[in-house]
Amino acid sequence: MSTKEQSDAEDGHITTLHEPVIIPRSEHGISRGQFSPNALKVLYRLKDGGYEAYLVGGCVRDLLLGLQPKDFDVVTNATPEQVKKLFRNCRLIGRRFRLAHIVFGREIIEVATMRGHHESTEPKKGAKCNISQASEHGQLLRDNVYGTIDEDAQRRDFTINALYYSIKDFCIYDYADGVKAIKKRRVELIGDPETRYREDPVRMLRAIRFATKLDMSISPATAKPITQLADLLANIPPARLFEECLKLFLGGKAEANFKALREYGLFKYLFPGLDKILDAKPGGLEERFITQMFVNTDVRINNDKKVTPAFIFAALLWFPLLKRTEELMQREQLPHFEALGAAMNQILSESAQQVAVPKRFTLGARDIWHIHHRFDKRGGQRAYRLSQQPRFKAAYDFMLLLVDSGQEDLKELCDWWTAYLNADVNGQKMMVKSLGGNNRPRRRRNGGSKRRSSNKAADE
Ligand code: ATP
Ligand code: MG
Predict the structure, then answer these.
(1) pTM, whole model, 2 decimals?
(2) What per-residue confidence (pLDDT) applies to 116?
(3) Which domain holds residue 197?
(4) What does the alpha-carbon distance between residue 339 and residue 333 come to, in Å, rounded to a whole number?
(5) Is 424 assigned a catalytic role?
(6) Terminal CA-to-CA distance of the chain, rounded, Å?
(7) What CA–CA distance (Å, rounded) separates 327 from 305?
(8) Above 90 in pLDDT, residue 418?
């Protein structure tokens, strides 16, 4: 072996596949009792139907690490259509990856057909299907070439994810030294990292997510090309990036993921406006705010409390929104309220070019921003009415977060609201009365018709 080859191997530069290392039941400690009963049902039904069936990927990896798997993924040599014939509760999904979903109430067991080599353009003899398509950047657009288990292992992303648990003999089949990588706590791609990232740039995000989630490091060879290839994320559909963002931010490791995304230069391709602002002011209020938002998100997730993506996206787009509002006020001479409305539309539609946040969350973010801008209008019934808005609590938390991150000019207002929320009805009335000044309600020309405002109406 030349010195170059040796150092590449030590780096794990090209992790090639080999005959599987077979770990018998007596040596791996994973038992069927740890699986979801529905996953077991699927495995047995496939086996009894004459097919091969394995648990694969994250669930095997997590069980070996002593973690509770998030979901159980099954792989088989049955085609999606053959799987569908075996299960009444099956639906076929996906274009890029055609998959079978077996639905058991709220639990879905995903059954994938083993993937073969996509390089082949000629239909393979005996291959059940051969549809594979790559873009000019080497990105796989369609990947429905079916194959054998060892080919399937090669198509997996990381060595720790190419572990198969067989329902036939209860052994673990390890094709890429995944068990060794688990012991060394190392996230490493199978094959040549650059090629693998080009095939699917989302693997760059996955490398980070697995490293933080599993408390592992990314092997040098797997880490090295990321910064240079980060711009490939621009070719990923925004809907897929949204899904990945949810996994990055709602998995209990959002703060660590945020830091790593910034370090590797990936954040820029998810939230370019914010990224620029953060670059301009290292350690500034903006960075403290986003970091603290993710710290709080992690605490809530790890305490099984609900987190709404609307809050996260409201925070991520907040500073770009303020900047744009300011620009519109100056450039277009718009009054504040109009500039704010226009800036919201612009920022949300620009951000959707990278990350397609569904409308139900962008509406939530708009609500939070609108309420925020009305916190200082407290006269008459306004404080009460504002406090009744469905997103009031989120907007109040948003303000607390800004103050905690060092936004001094909001402190007095924030303290007022804290006291207001802790006061009884009479106390609240007194607080409003003693406001005076420009918080006195304007007299309504129509004599003050009682508008039981819906959330939207009140914001306009
Ligand atoms: P978790 O579910 O905990 O996020 P996971 O490893 O199960 O982790 P999934 O996204 O559920 O991740 O994917 C299941 C398996 O499918 C992975 O373990 C991996 O083997 C394979 N896989 C998923 N996405 C890719 C990809 N982009 N490229 C190659 N293989 C992938
Ligand atoms: Mg999974």
Answers:
(1) 0.87
(2) 84
(3) 17-236
(4) 9
(5) no
(6) 72
(7) 38
(8) yes
Top mutation candidate among 64, 73, 190 for ligand 1, by most atoms within 8 Å of CB: 73
Closest CA to 273 of 290, 256, 260: 290
- Does residue 90 fall inside a structural domain? yes
Give residue 5's pLDDT: 37
Per the CB < 8 A criterion, the answer to whether 112 and 161 are in contact is: no
Would 86 be classed as within a structural domain?
A: yes
Radius of gyration, alpha carbons of the chain: 27
Q: How many CB atoms lie within 10 A of CB 14?
A: 15
Q: Lowest-confidence range among 202-206, 238-242, 262-266, 456-460?
A: 456-460
Q: How confident is the model at residue 452 (pLDDT cuts 50, 70, 90)?
A: very low
In a domain, 188, yes or no: yes
The active-site residue out of 157, 174, 298, 459 is 157
Domain of residue 189, CATH code? 3.30.460.10
Stated as kind and residue range, the H or E segment containing 109 is: strand 107-113
Using CA atoms, how far apart are residues 76 and 56, in angstroms rounded to an integer? 10
Query: Does the annotation count 157 as an active-site position?
Result: yes
The number of distinct structural domains making up the chain is 1
Neighbours of ion ligand 2 (CB under 5 A): 58, 71
Residue 157 lies in a domain: yes
Of 96, 109, 118, 132, nearest in space to 42 by CA = 109
